């Protein structure tokens, strides 16, 4: 999961550098007034999203398998804890009825 996040961040930074260079070269417009920095960030996000969607497909699949495994383990642990609580609750009811 960390690997996917770092790779996605790397693609964004790469796009940021390219967009910054293209804006200052005059290929892309500079934005309105003082909005130049925000314009560069938004344009970089807009470009990096589809690039990372295509380029990181395999890594995203690996990360989703890891997340699904963690969720399954957490569900199993919760079910086991619920079972233990039910047994403890049943045994306390049995003792209180026997008294």
Describe this structure in words.
With 99 residues, the chain is mostly helical. The chain has helices at 2-25, 36-55, 57-98. The chain folds into two domains: 1-55, no CATH class; 56-99. It is built from three helices and no strands. Helix 1 (2-25) packs across helix 2 (36-55). The chain starts with a helix and ends with a helix.
Low-pLDDT windows of residues: none
Overall geometry comes to elongated
Main β sheet profile = none
The pLDDT mean sits at 84
Brief synopsis:
The protein is mainly alpha-helical and 99 residues long. The protein has helices at 2-25, 36-55, 57-98.
Features:
3 helices, single chain, 2 domains, 99 residues, elongated, 87% helix, mainly alpha, 0% strand
Task: Give the arrangement of secondary structure elements.
Layout: H1 2-25, H2 36-55, H3 57-98
């Amino acid at each position: 999961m960390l690997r996917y996040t770092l790779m996605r961040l790397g693609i964004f930074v790469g796009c940021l550098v390219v967009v910054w260079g293209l804006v200052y070269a005059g290929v892309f417009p500079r934005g309105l007034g003082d909005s130049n920095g925000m314009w560069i960030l938004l344009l970089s996000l807009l470009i990096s999203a589809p690039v990372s969607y295509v380029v990181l497909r395999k890594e995203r699949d690996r990360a989703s398998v890891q997340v699904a495994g963690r969720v399954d383990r957490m569900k199993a642990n919760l079910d086991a804890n619920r079972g233990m609580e039910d047994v403890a609750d049943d045994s306390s009811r049995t003792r209180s009825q026997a008294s």
